[in-house]
Specification:
Layout (H helix, E strand, L loop, with lengths): L1 H7 L2 H9 L2 H14 L4 H25 L3 H8 L1 H34 L5 H49 L14 H12 L7 H14 L7 H30 L10 H16 L4 H34 L8 H18 L4 H14 L1 H13 L11 H24 L1
Helix pairs in contact: 2-7, 2-9, 2-10, 2-12, 3-8, 3-10, 4-9, 4-10, 4-15, 4-16, 5-6, 6-7, 6-11, 6-12, 6-13, 6-14, 7-10, 7-11, 7-12, 7-13, 8-14, 8-16, 9-12, 11-12, 12-13, 15-16
Length: 406
């Protein structure tokens, strides 16, 4: 029984691996550095109100044996076409954003070269090699190890920071004002814990997981697995905001938008405040954070594009998983080669777009999971429906507030 339970874990941890990346290491650290503990309210609320829509991914997969993309087709091909365009428009920028941060950390840790395009190419090639050799099964097992290492090293770093803290903590919550601060808040909410379309990835990984085990995952097991991953993203989000607040708030430092400079500032500030011995914990936490995201994103977007293409054309085409991995690799390489100086702007645009499109995915997931295409016994209870409706208004409300404030 324990073996079956352990085997059922996987898609939720892949979700955590995809989510715990730029949103945590970069955005959460900056939130703590610039606002102290003042944005804890935003961190908690966005986790609460996005939760149902992320959970509906593995819930729908467990209930029907299909991905959310199959469900979207049942709602209308136009819905699927909109997702296709949105995903194609953002997947290169998202991959470039997570890879360039990973490359900056790799350059800082391993040396060899300071050329981030070379490091990015190496990291993407290693990620693809993992997927070629082990496919989903290796990715599933690898993520279990990475999440454990990440969690332990981050908690140790936070514990050291707390023990070294000499000033009293100010937990007064802040509602940012001004275009720059509001833009940062929306970008923070956009990728915290992840863009809402990652719910589609969760449903894909859940279906893929069932292909690799003998006993199919039941609904309760799928929800438990997802909850493990989701709670991990919340705990680590709190950790990274706390690290930023404890170590960097009022430090007088301003962060660079360039990958290698940001990575150096991040690690050096931590080691300066926590002690040289903490370097290894911070380095491992930071690198595993971003490398896990690099691997999962380079796997998920091609899977999503493959399924969407087949559903739109009602047949399997030559535009398969490996075709889309190749396209993603080449597109990301082009962005990093010619637009590396604009990565700060591109990341901000991608995170804001993720938040502005969140209501679209929230409504789609809610309509699908509560409608005729999901068996009644697998539909969410009344409390989760209430949180979903409030969450939709939360996402729409903040989008309107942002658009009228800039």
């Amino acid at each position: 029984m324990k073996k079956i339970f352990f085997q059922s874990l996987g898609p939720g941890l892949l979700f955590a691996g995809a989510a715990i990346g730029v949103s945590h290491l970069v955005q959460s650290t900056r939130a703590g550095a610039e606002f102290g503990f003042g944005l804890f309210w935003a961190l908690l609320l966005v986790h609460i109100f996005k939760y149902p829509f992320f959970q509906f991914g593995p819930r729908y997969a467990a209930a029907t044996g299909e991905t959310l993309l199959d469900g979207y087709k049942k709602l209308g091909k136009s819905v699927l076409a909109i997702y296709y365009v949105l995903n194609f428009a953002t997947m290169f920028t998202i991959q470039a954003a997570v890879t360039i941060v990973t490359a900056g950390l790799a350059s800082k840790l391993f040396g060899i070269t300071n050329n981030l395009v070379i490091w990015s190419t190496i990291l993407m090639a290693i990620s693809i090699l993992f997927l070629v050799i082990g496919k989903y099964k290796l990715l599933d097992n690898l993520m279990k190890i990475i999440i454990v290492i990440l969690t332990i090293s981050t908690i140790i770093a936070v514990s050291v920071a707390l023990s070294n803290a000499k000033e009293t903590f100010d937990f007064q919550q802040i509602l940012p004002s001004g275009t720059v601060e509001i833009t940062f808040l929306i970008a923070f909410l956009g990728w915290m814990p992840a863009p809402l379309d990652v719910s589609i990835w969760s449903s894909i990984w859940s279906v893929e997981k069932n292909k690799n085990i003998i006993q199919k995952i039941k609904l309760k097991e799928a929800i438990f697995d997802f909850n493990v991953g989701y709670i991990s993203t919340l705990i680590l989000g709190i950790c990274f905001v706390s690290l930023g607040a404890l170590v960097m708030f009022n430090s007088g430092e301003t962060f660079s938008n360039k990958g290698i400079e940001f990575s150096s500032q991040l690690i050096n500030l931590y080691t300066k405040s926590l002690g040289d011995f903490s370097y290894i914990f911070i380095a491992i936490a930071a690198f595993t954070t971003m490398f896990s995201t690099t691997i999962t994103t380079i796997d998920a977007s091609p899977r999503a594009m493959t399924i969407t293409t087949n559903l739109l054309f009602d047949k399997k085409t030559k535009l398969n998983y490996w075709f889309w991995i190749t396209i993603l690799f080449l597109g990301t390489f082009i962005i990093l080669t010619y637009f590396i100086g604009e990565m700060g702007v591109l990341v901000k645009l991608a995170t804001i777009l993720s938040f502005l499109t969140a209501p679209f995915f929230a409504i789609l997931n809610y309509v699908l999971i509560t409608g005729k295409h999901t068996p009644k016994e697998h539909q969410p209870g009344i409390y989760l429906k209430i949180v979903s409706i409030v969450g939709i208004f939360f996402l729409i409300g903040f989008s309107i507030w942002f658009l009228t404030s800039i």
